[in-house]
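Handoff note, outgoing to incoming analyst
You'll be picking up this chain. Sequence as last confirmed:
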Amino acid sequence: MSKPKDPTASNARSPIAGCAIFICVGLVMIFLIVFSIVSLFRQFDAIKEFTAEKPVALKVSSVEDRDAELNQLAERLESFRQQLTDGKDTSLLLSAEDMNLAIAAYEPLKELRGTFHIDQIADGEMDISISFKINGKPRLPKKGETGWFNSDPRYLNAEIVAHPKLAKGEIALEIDSIKVPGKTVPEEFKEQMSPYRITQRYTEDAVIGPSMAKLTGVEIQGDKVLFRRKSGEKPSDNITREQVDSASSRFFKIIGIAATIFLTLVGIVLLIGIRAKKNRSESGSI
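Most recent structure output, in case you need it:
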């Protein structure tokens, strides 16, 4: 006499469970892709509300007939750089016009000309005009363009209120406010843009990079910015690398939370399905 079959044996060998796992993985991947695209396009639509299609040409300090000022500034900067190189305690005070003049005169700073201008330094803050380039909404390439996707740039033509702080090996601006005439800039955008890593491009510069790396403090004193190196000083206002990179991680945290919620829902649905199947199997075996 043959042994009766276990009604649950076929279920144990059923490929349905494996297929369900692959289906869930596929659904999660599709969900993350769709969620990322939708979030990205919503972000671009929000940015479009307070940005412009074209940049604004900001004031550039004139260098004509200012040889005496330029020579004096050059001597101060070179003396400060040399003392930093030698590991000596030193400091340098620069006014708004000193920094604007340096931007106008020195080749390494040419990318800031017409896009970054310090209007004034007062009350512990810097008032700065910027014309900051931002990538626009992705689109298919036009005739003659290369690449799979391109975008038309947007420009943040704004006034920012900020104060300088040290990141590791660079000077950053912690933004207190962003003002665009006639527009409202969301708080989330300000948080994403701050700290504004204005000097990040110079960390690899053979002269500017090593000098910034030796600083132990930067702060506003009256109507000037003080840069210093002091033996034994640990920068109390240092921006950590985690803070510097926090803006780029926020989006992935949102995706992670959304994915967790989605996976939880999928898990609940699968659990309900498995229990229902088990109940049907038990009912069939009675």
